Every structure is written in structure tokens, then in C-alpha cells.
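Hi P.,

Sorry for the delay on this. The queue was packed all week, but I finally got your sequence through. Input first:
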Amino acid sequence: MHELALAQDIVETINEKVTDDLRKISNINLEVGAFSGVVPESLAFGIETIFADKKVPGVKVTIVKVPTIACCTCGKEYELKEIFETCPVCRSFERKLISGMEILIKSVEVSEE
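Then the structure:
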């Protein structure tokens, strides 16, 4: 389950870059691409479990799923629902993925206490 390893990396990044006191964290907002290979529910569960293990229960994890957007060689941008989907204009498979592969920490809510 690679989501647990990703969860650990996310918590470590927050601990290093945002605050060294994880008890101040109340909410974590993530974006997960549709083609990232990550199950959002498993990732959220992993993060919540890590915080609970660190005696910091109640951290809320909000995940927004980012659609996969492709740009065809003909110039058409379109949402890709399946990997073998062709361009809706020219029916080509040649494309560049613009979004949908990422896993981003969008924001972290920290209390002042």
C-alpha cells in the first residue's frame, strides 16, 4: 500500500516546512490527480492514522480529485477519462498530459495556540 508511504512523506513535509508542532494542525488540503495511481480515501486514512499515532487526533484531511487534462498534437485540450482515449477532434493518441498525475499539498490550516 503505497498510500501509507505517501502519507508519511506528506506528514514529514508538513512537519519540516509548515510547523514543527503537529498539534497545531487542524486541516490538510490536498489535490490528487485522477491518473496519479493514488486512492484518495486510503491516503486520507493513512494521514489521519499517522497523526493519531503521534497523539494528534482530529486532523481533518480534505482531498480534491484533479481531472486528467491532455493536450493533443492538434492543439485540442480535453479531459481524459481513460488512458486509451483518443482526441475528440482528430482521434490521435499523441498527446501531452497537462494535469492529473500530481499529488499536491494545497494548504495546511494551523492554529495559533
